[in-house]
Amino acid sequence: MQEKFKNDKILLKRLAVNDADQYYKLYTAQNGRYHDYSSIKPIEFTEQIIAKCNCIFTIRSVQDSTKIIGDCALHHWNKEKNEMEIGGLLLPHYWGRGFMASAFQILADLAKKEFGIQTLIARTESTNSKALRFAMKNGFAKKDQEGILLLLVKDL
User: Fold this and answer.
1) Fewest CB within 10 angstroms: 41, 89, 127, 152, which?
2) For residue range 10-41, what is the model confidence (pLDDT) as tens digits?
């Protein structure tokens, strides 16, 4: 599998331990929106994330490929159903510019070609209207709800 993917907007670079300090800041900059990571060191945090994903990439703009502005990942591969979850995070300053849509399209192509995936699954909180709108705009459809989490699917 390739280490990097690039188009006219973004550079996806496979997450590595040497990205730990900058990558950790991506999540801690969210002021506890997801979890409180203050008790874990950047390297340990990054290693745990890498271990949980089938593949994970940092998102960088082509204008400044040294700065990590987000991440996107494929995880929870269900080989029997040819399904895999997709997810990501993008710093708010970069929202609405097509960065995450570009990243998801690259990952969708990768999921199909490298893993034989037929269906992508995305999960988001039902109250996260921006993520829900993004998913629907990018071909995902609501399938189910598990508590406050919405399950969305996209056939490839």
Assistant:
1) 127
2) 999 999 999 999 999 988 876 555 566 778 89
Q: What is the CA radius of gyration of the chain?
A: 15
pTM: 0.92
Residue showing tokens 């400044």: 64
Strands (E), 99-146: 119-125, 141-146
* C-beta separation of 137 from 114 below 8 A: no
Q: Which two tokens stand for residue 24?
A: 């950790």
Residue for token digits 């705009």? 137
Alpha carbons 64 and 59: distance in angstroms, whole number = 11
Rounded Cα gap, residues 25 and 7, in angstroms: 25
